[in-house]
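job 3f2a | input accepted
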Amino acid sequence: MKILALIGSPRRKGNTDALVEQILKGSRTKGHTTEKLYLYDYTISLCIDCRNCKKGDYVCCINDEMQQIYPKMEEADLIIFGTPLYWYGPTAKMKLLVDRMRPFVANGKLKGKKAVVVTPSAEGAKACGPLLEMFRMSFEYLGMEFAGKVLVKAYEKGEILTNKREMERAYELGASL
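job 3f2a | predicted structure (177 res):
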């Protein structure tokens, strides 16, 4: 299985990155191939609701670095969406990516793929309801299968590294994919 991890955190080696890496590490023990992209390394423009993606070749006409991400998403069997919780939703960069997934509604290229959500937050899992619902409904709309989640309480950079239980849980999720 090919796994693509999309990191929507501005912090490299932060809590989101560490949790996603544990999932990837666990998945590699089962022979899966992995790739991790840091969304803050890419220029992703706003969706302008031009609706060009709903006709013709069903592709986005905005010429930015999202064009490099689309084929990676299409090639993956499972996509991990990693984002810290910002005001009970994803980071702005992750939301830009989700908004730009509109072509996949028309072309169906994500149908049948699996998705995992990874979210650390200062308040913990209880605060992640709105974020999870946004992702769940988006996955359903795209025909994707919601395959798992890791929601943890962590705020300071790297704080999750001291939580052996949650790090092990992330690893086990990866190994079970």
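job 3f2a | Residues 47 and 151 are 28 Å apart (CA to CA).
job 3f2a | closed
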